[in-house]
C-alpha cells in the first residue's frame, strides 16, 4: 500500500486527504479485506505518517460506509452486504438502461469510436488476468456511454454508484470464468448503440447488470438472485 500512497500524492492535497484516498483505494480494490482491522499504529508505520491523518481518514471512511466501528475491536473494513449489493444494483440497472437509450440518440461518431476502442481494450486485457486493469477498463467503457448522454445529473449519479459498486465489480471481474460473458455483453451493448437501437441497447444494458448481480452473489455465496 506504500506504492498506492505515492500514486495518490498530490502537492495540493492535505496529508489527511492523501491518506484517505490511499486507504479508500485499498478497500475498493480488495487489498484491505472485509473484516480486516484498521489499526492506527500499524497503518501509520506502514504509510510513514503520524496517527492523526490515519484517524481522520478512518472517520471519513466510516461516514462512507466503507469502515465500521466494532466495540472492543475498533475500526474494521466493512463487510460486503447483500442488502447493499441489491440496493446499489437495482438503481444502477435503471440508470444504465437510461444511459444506453440516450446514447443511441446522442452519442457522436467520435464517441462511438472511443466506445469501440474501450470495448476492444477490455477484451485485450482479459488475457492479462489483471483484475485491477480490467476493472478500470470496464469503468472506462461505461463512462463513455454515460458521458455521451450529456446529462450532468445522470453522470453524477452513476459516478457515485460506481464507487459504491467497485468492490462488488472487482470480486466479479477477478473471476476469469466471467470474462467471456463480459466480452459478449460489451459487444452487444456497443452494437445496439452503433445501430441506434434503443430497445436492444436497453435490454443489453439491463441484462449486463442482472448477470453481474447473479455472478457476484454466486462468487460471494449469497442466496441466489430472484428476479
Description:
It is a single chain. The chain has about 230 residues and is mainly alpha-helical. Helix content is about 70%, strand content about 5%. The protein contains ten helices and two strands; from the N terminus they run H-H-H-H-E-E-H-H-H-H-H-H. The chain has helices spanning about 1-10, 15-30, 40-45, 50-65, 80-105, 110-125, 130-150, 150-175, 180-195, 200-220; strands at about 65-70, 75. The protein has a two-stranded antiparallel sheet with strand order 1-2. Strand 1 (about 65-70) and strand 2 form a beta hairpin. The termini are far apart. About 30% of the residues are buried.
For the largest sheet, list the strands in their spatial order: 1-2
Low-confidence stretches: none
β-sheet strand percentage: under 5%
Distance between the termini: 39 Å
Give the overall pLDDT as a whole number: 89
| Structure class | mainly alpha
Shape annotation: elongated
Total helical segments:
10
Main sheet makeup: 2 strands, antiparallel
Rg result:
19 Å
In N-to-C order, the SSE pattern is: HHHHEEHHHHHH
Tell me the total number of β-strands: 2
Helix content: over 70%
Provide key terms for this protein:
single chain; 227 residues; mainly alpha; two-stranded antiparallel sheet; 10 helices; 72% helix; elongated
What's a quick, concise take on this entry?
This protein is mainly α and 227 residues long. It has helices at 2-8, 15-28, 40-47, 51-64, 82-106, 109-125, 131-148, 152-173, 179-194, 198-219; strands at 67-70, 74-77.
SSE blueprint and pairings:
Elements: H1 2-8, H2 15-28, H3 40-47, H4 51-64, E1 67-70, E2 74-77, H5 82-106, H6 109-125, H7 131-148, H8 152-173, H9 179-194, H10 198-219
Antiparallel strand pairs: 1-2
Helix pairs in contact: 1-2, 2-4, 3-4, 5-7, 5-8, 5-9, 5-10, 6-7, 6-9, 7-8, 8-10, 9-10
Amino acid at each position: 500500500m506504500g506504492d498506492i500512497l505515492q500514486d495518490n500524492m498530490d502537492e495540493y492535497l492535505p496529508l489527511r486527504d492523501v491518506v484517505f484516498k490511499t486507504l479508500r483505494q485499498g478497500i475498493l480494490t480488495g487489498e484491505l479485506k472485509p473484516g480486516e482491522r484498521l489499526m492506527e499504529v500499524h497503518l501509520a508505520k506502514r504509510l510513514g505518517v503520524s496517527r492523526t491523518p490515519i484517524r481522520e481518514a478512518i472517520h471519513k471512511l466510516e461516514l462512507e460506509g466503507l469502515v465500521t466501528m466494532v466495540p472492543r475491536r475498533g475500526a474494521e473494513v466493512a463487510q460486503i452486504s447483500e442488502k447493499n449489493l441489491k440496493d446499489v444494483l437495482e438503481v444502477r440497472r435503471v440508470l444504465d438502461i437510461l444511459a444506453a437509450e440516450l446514447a443511441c440518440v446522442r452519442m457522436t461518431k467520435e464517441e462511438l469510436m472511443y466506445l469501440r476502442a474501450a470495448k476492444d481494450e477490455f477484451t485485450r486485457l482479459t488475457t492479462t488476468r489483471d483484475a485491477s486493469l480490467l476493472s478500470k477498463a470496464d469503468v472506462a467503457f461505461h463512462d463513455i456511454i454515460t458521458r455521451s448522454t450529456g446529462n450532468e445529473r445522470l453522470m453524477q449519479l452513476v459516478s457515485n454508484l460506481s464507487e459504491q459498486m467497485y468492490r462488488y465489480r472487482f470480486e466479479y471481474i477477478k473471476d476469469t470464468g466471467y470474462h467471456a460473458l463480459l466480452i459478449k455483453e460489451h459487444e452487444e451493448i456497443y452494437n445496439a448503440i452503433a445501430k441506434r437501437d434503443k430497445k436492444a441497447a436497453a435490454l443489453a444494458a439491463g441484462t449486463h447488470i442482472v448477470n453481474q448481480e447473479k455472478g457476484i452473489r454466486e462468487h460471494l455465496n449469497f442466496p441466489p438472485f430472484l428476479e
